[in-house]
Amino acid sequence: MQRSFIYLLVSTMSLMAGLLTNNANALSTTQWQDSAVLSVKAIVSPYTSVKLSTNEISFKILGEPGAYVSKDVVEVTVGSNQSTWGVYVKAAELKHDDRKIKSLPAARMSFSKDGKNYQTLENNVLFLKGVVSQKPRPIKLRFKLTTTWEDAPGVYRGKITFAFLNNP
Length: 168
Hints:
The protein is an alpha+beta fold. The protein has one helix at residues 2-26; strands spanning 48-52, 67-69, 74-80, 84-91, 95-96, 109-112, 119-120, 125-131, 139-146, 156-157, 160-167. The strands form 3 sheets. Strands 1, 2, 3, 6, 7 and 9 form a 6-stranded antiparallel sheet that branches. Strands 8-4-11 form a 3-stranded antiparallel sheet, with no helix packed on it. It starts with a helix and ends with a strand.
């Protein structure tokens, strides 16, 4: 019985030694070490976010033709981890619900960052610039529409587009 026990013990030790040797080879080292190194790789993808506080503005034209400021103030917040960048804004013409009626040209739409100096939205206008280290902060915009005596009554619809451009 003692002999069987010793044989079993020796067999178990041989098996364990074989497993340890195989694991050590799997780790591509022949010695046990008291530390190990794990490589780390982080992939940071480009990120850009343009957020608007609302998805619609409106103008209530309740009198004779002139300049009307929207009651809505729009907050635009831009964040990006890309080098230097710019945000451009442009309006499309406002089309009457009755397509036979003449549209309101985009040149009659304008915006302001300070509520005083308005810029037309006929062409792309650079209104915000930033850099990679810049934290996002909201910019408040007001919009103005100028009407004329030629504008027919009714509902006009259009879009204002904010476009982000990365400058490497």
